[in-house]
């Protein structure tokens, strides 16, 4: 193949952009060259960074600076507001590209099968995150009438949700939150937020920095019960072998022994409490029932048969994300991933699905930090290039880069571009300048399209 390798990447979040970067850094980028088109269902790129990271985490959002440098490369084009498979099917992609990489991530909530989960006042954390991050496809309002709130889970998303609920609206105003989110948070009645984990401090999945940031707010008093500081042999081994787990446990220990403060909002971190039932009355949440657990020597826990009813009026489950099934690709419902071998998609008979690959959370599940997707991308791209070198890519029937743009135009798809992102970015920053902020995020899809020049 003397022409550049044509690669489509479906999903322009960190995983997809890291895959593009890996392709550009490969030997194939020199000879015969690589041409990459990124397709993103949102009008703007960056996926999880834009719509999954809390607005008061500017350091994490700083990753966008590095991703910008990748997308600035001339070998890459961005097609935003293009939905797979409604605007472009897998068969269509095979017509225009030698290989297709799916990096569609995970944005939905994983299910939690306990009684009462469907009550009014029971929410998925992913839905709440989408609301406060200004996702265009979710409602513009959020019910925030509960004075006492429970958050189920001990990962970073649980911390984000708890922190946003416990902070005041004015604390968050300097961030990029849209006006509708600030207005909603002004109505927030939460004065107590309770975070529940079924295991102990050594098993918490918080990152140390995220945990410590809870204590930086002048309005949030973080409370840890000294009785929840407990370790067995398995927990001690975890602390010895995992620096981050040890730092998290040390922070929790320090909070457990300090004197109570007088900050107005209380954020309780509870361990060894397994959610058993969301208690309802007249169809609404009025409490949460947990079973006390105890360590079994291995770092795992068992139930003790002792139950506690907690007075809360809302429950947020932050027990993990799940990916959506992708048409024309196999899907493992249990893991929420596409079956693969080192990134090569596996057909039902175990063979490799020709010229189709996965990377990121759709490949390995919604675990790990954003930077972990670089390793995924490198592995997947190495397989793609091996298949190219071995002649296992059949080749695109319409390799001309203009063919796909003509196709989208014929379909009437209003797509955005990388230049369009710069226009939207400039507009959001101008909105921020008027209020002394870095940016104010545009929420409505139609407004995003208009300011992107779609």
Q: CATH homologous superfamily of the largest domain, by name?
A: FAD/NAD(P)-binding domain
| Largest β sheet strand count, sense and barrel closure | 7 strands, mixed
Number of helices: 17
Strand content: 15-25%
Reported CATH architecture of the largest domain: 3-Layer(bba) Sandwich
- The residue fraction in helices comes out at 25-40%
- Rg (CA only): 23 Å
CATH class type of the largest domain: Alpha Beta
The SS-based structural class is alpha/beta
State mean pLDDT (0 to 100 scale).
95
Total strand count, please?
18
Structural domains: how many: 2
- Stretches where pLDDT is under 50 for at least 5 consecutive residues are none
Rough shape? Answer: globular
CATH topology of the largest domain: FAD/NAD(P)-binding domain
Q: What's the arrangement of strands in the largest beta sheet?
A: 3-2-1-4-18-17-16
N- and C-termini, Cα separation: 34 Å
Summarize the structure in words:
The protein is of the alpha/beta class and 454 residues long. The protein folds into two domains: 5-106 and 323-415, Rossmann fold; 108-321, 3-Layer(bba) Sandwich (FAD/NAD(P)-binding domain). Helix content is 33%, strand content 21%. The chain contains 17 helices and 18 strands. The protein has helices spanning 14-24, 48-51, 58-61, 63-71, 90-96, 125-132, 156-166, 169-172, 179-186, 208-213, 233-241, 243-257, 361-364, 373-389, 401-410, 418-433, 445-451, and strands at 5-10, 34-40, 76-80, 99-102, 108-109, 122-124, 148-152, 192-196, 220-224, 265-270, 273-281, 284-295, 301-310, 314-317, 321-322, 340-341, 344-346, 352-358. The protein has a seven-stranded mixed β-sheet, sandwiched between helices. Strands 6-14-7-8-10-9 form a six-stranded parallel β-sheet. Helix 1 packs across helix 14 and helix 6 packs across helix 7 (156-166). The longest helix has 17 residues, at 373-389. The protein starts with a strand and ends with a helix. The relative contact order is 0.18. The mean pLDDT is 95.
């Amino acid at each position: 193949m003397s022409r550049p390798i044509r690669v489509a990447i479906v999903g322009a979040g960190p995983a997809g952009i890291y895959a593009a970067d890996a392709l550009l850094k490969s030997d194939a980028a020199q000879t015969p060259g690589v041409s990459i088109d990124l397709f993103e269902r949102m009008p703007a790129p960056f996926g999880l960074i834009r719509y999954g990271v809390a607005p008061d985490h500017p350091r994490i959002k700083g990753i966008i600076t590095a991703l910008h440098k990748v997308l600035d490369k001339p070998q890459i084009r961005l097609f935003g507001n293009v939905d797979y498979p409604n605007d472009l099917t897998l068969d269509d992609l095979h017509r225009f590209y030698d290989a297709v990489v799916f990096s569609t991530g995970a944005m939905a909530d994983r299910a939690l099968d306990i009684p009462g989960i469907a009550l009014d006042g029971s929410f998925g954390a992913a839905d709440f995150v989408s609301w406060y991050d200004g996702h265009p496809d979710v409602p513009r309002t959020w019910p925030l009438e509960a004075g006492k709130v429970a958050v189920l889970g001990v990962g970073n998303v649980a911390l984000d949700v708890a922190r946003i609920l416990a902070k005041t609206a004015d604390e968050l105003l300097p961030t990029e939150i849209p006006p509708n989110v600030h207005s909603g948070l002004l109505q927030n009645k939460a004065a107590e937020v309770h975070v529940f984990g079924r295991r102990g401090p050594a098993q918490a999945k918080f990152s140390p920095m995220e945990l410590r940031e809870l204590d930086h707010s002048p309005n949030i008093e973080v409370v840890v019960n000294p009785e929840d500081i407990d370790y067995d042999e398995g927990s001690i081994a975890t602390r010895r072998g995992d620096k981050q787990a040890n730092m998290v446990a040390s922070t929790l220990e320090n909070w457990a022994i300090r004197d109570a403060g007088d900050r107005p909002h209380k954020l309780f971190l509870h361990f060894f409490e397994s959610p058993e039932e969301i208690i309802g009355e007249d169809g609404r949440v009025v409490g949460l029932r947990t079973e006390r657990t105890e360590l079994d020597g291995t770092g795992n826990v068992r139930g003790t048969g002792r139950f506690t009813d907690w007075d809360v009026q809302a429950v947020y489950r932050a027990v993990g994300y799940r990916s959506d099934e992708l048409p024309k690709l196999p899907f493992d419902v249990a893991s929420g991933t596409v079956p693969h071998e080192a990134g090569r998609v596996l057909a039902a008979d175990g063979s490799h699905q020709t010229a189709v690959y996965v990377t990121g959370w759709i490949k390995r599940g919604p675990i790990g930090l954003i930077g972990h997707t670089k390793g995924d991308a490198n592995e997947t791209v190495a397989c793609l290039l091996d298949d190219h070198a071995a002649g296992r890519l059949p080749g695109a029937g319409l390799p001309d880069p203009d063919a796909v743009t003509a196709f989208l135009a014929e379909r009437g798809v209003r797509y955005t571009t990388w230049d369009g992102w710069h226009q939207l970015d400039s507009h959001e920053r101008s909105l921020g300048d008027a209020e002394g902020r870095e940016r104010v995020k545009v929420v409505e899809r139609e407004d995003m399209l208009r300011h992107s020049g779609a």
